Amino acid sequence: MGNGNSVEQELDLSLIIACYMEEGHLKDSVRQVIDILDTLKVRYELIFVEDCSRDRTREIIDELSVHYAEKNIKKICHEKNAGRGKTVSDGFRVARGCVVGYIDIDLEIHARYIPDFYLAIRNGADVAVAHRIYNFKITSIDRYMMSRGYNFLLRRLLHIPFTDTEAGYKFFRRDKLLDFIDEIEDPGWFWDSEVMVRAFLHNCRIVEIPTLFLRRSDKKSTVNNIKDTLDYMKRVYRFRRKVLPALRKGAGAG
């Protein structure tokens, strides 16, 4: 299968790689991802969605497409920065796999978990989401406290049972995802929370898979702890007003 020349047929798995300022680790991470995918022995595609990075991310994707010319690789490039949620959604909309998923390509959750997520969907789940287990380090305490506090608040305000909505490691049964993907309004980081609530309201069977989270010390986070936390809180409360009646009635309102 080559770039753009393969017959348009349904595949087993589409993996979305949303890219923003990934220059430092993209080549090595993609190598690891492809090594893992090849062990699965399934028909797969990689869909890179490049969100107007200011570094060499776009050029590196082109280099990877040439290097892995025998693989089924697609590329979508945004001409303006659109946000994490819009980037992932754009990839999902062109995906041809029965199972569709995305991972954060910094691999703070390792590629070795991909088979577990793929098989969870194949074995009957509609959604498989990572539950991050932190390898505790003092340098990670801010991310740990933010994640745990945010998810506690989300469970209390939105009455949802999930342990970790924000992990950048989610797989879906494509036909179920297409039922509600157009309902998701947030184009940014809150997309991760919204997609889980929408899936819950659509009676999706959701499984959480424990995964080890190892924070990279060589990657500068684009998260601004105080600013982004306050922004998240505003979005949670606005979203709560929209969906709380349906959540009180229970899943099935969608």
| Strand order across the largest sheet | 3-2-1-4-6-5-7
| Percentage beta strand | 15-25%
* Biggest sheet architecture: 7 strands, mixed
Number of helices: 8
Q: Sum up the overall morphology in one term.
A: globular
The secondary structure category is alpha/beta
What's the average pLDDT? Answer: 88
Rg, Å, rounded: 18 Å
Tally of strands: 7
Approximately how much helix is present in the residues?
40-55%
Kindly report how far apart the N and C termini lie: 38 Å
Q: List SSEs in N-to-C order.
A: EHEHEHEHEHEHHEH
**Poorly predicted parts:** 1-7
Protein architecture, described:
The protein is α/β, with parallel strands linked by helices and 254 residues long. The protein has eight helices and seven strands. A seven-stranded mixed sheet has the order 3-2-1-4-6-5-7. Strand 1, helix 1 and strand 2 form a beta-alpha-beta unit. Helix 5 runs parallel beside helix 8. The longest helix is centred in the C-terminal third of the chain and has 25 residues. It is globular, with a radius of gyration of 18 Å. The termini are far apart. The N terminus is likely disordered.
Summarize the structure.
Helix content is 42%, strand content 19%. With 254 residues, it is of the alpha/beta class.
What are the key terms here?
single chain; 254 residues; alpha/beta; 7-stranded mixed β-sheet; 8 helices; 7 strands; globular
